[in-house]
Amino acid sequence: DGGITQSPKYLFRKEGQNVTLSCEQNLNHDAMYWYRQDPGQGLRLIYYSQIVNDFQKGDIAEGYSVSREKKESFPLTVTSAQKNPTAFYLCASSPRTSGRATDTQYFGPGTRLTVL
Amino acid sequence: AQSVSQHNHHVILSEAASLELGCNYSYGGTVNLFWYVQYPGQHLQLLLKYFSGDPLVKGIKGFEAEFIKSKFSFNLRKPSVQWSDTAEYFCAVRDSWGKFQFGAGTQVVVTP
To answer: Do B101 and A45 meet the contact criterion of CB atoms below 8 Å apart?
Structure first.
């Protein structure tokens, strides 16, 4: 059963703690992405990675960190430096970034993080 | 920096009415354009996409969109909506570097 998995679905943390959100895909996709979704603001890109061991900052990377040690995994750490971490976080992947018609993004179910 | 603008944040309409959602983007280079839909409690899923060729693209569930390069627009349309079209709709643009930019989304509510 192919797809993107994000775990857990709901996550609660105390203020000041770092937390890592999991994203795994078994689609053999090269590119992976992290977004946060806030009401009225759509999806905002945090980080993306086009290949293993390489990643780029998106529009709102401050307070976040990522790693891409394996093709299928792209974990996101929300650090204590992120001022408004409570949000819905979405992970996505796409086959490649060459601009071909198959390069559609596929999304995971998301993780709702609440920082208390 | 590129940006994507969706004209309406909320749209309420009756079943069988026609729907048009506006999307404009600002980016001078080659772009790929997408509309995604998020039904209540479900994943974001692709509705349709434009990469090249015919600027009028057809997607799932009777949706279509027209790419007008001169206006930097990619408006979504459906001639007759159903209650099941109630969802949030997102326009997205991908630039030549592989970076995606999404609009703020339009919440569409279809009343019976």
So the answer is: yes
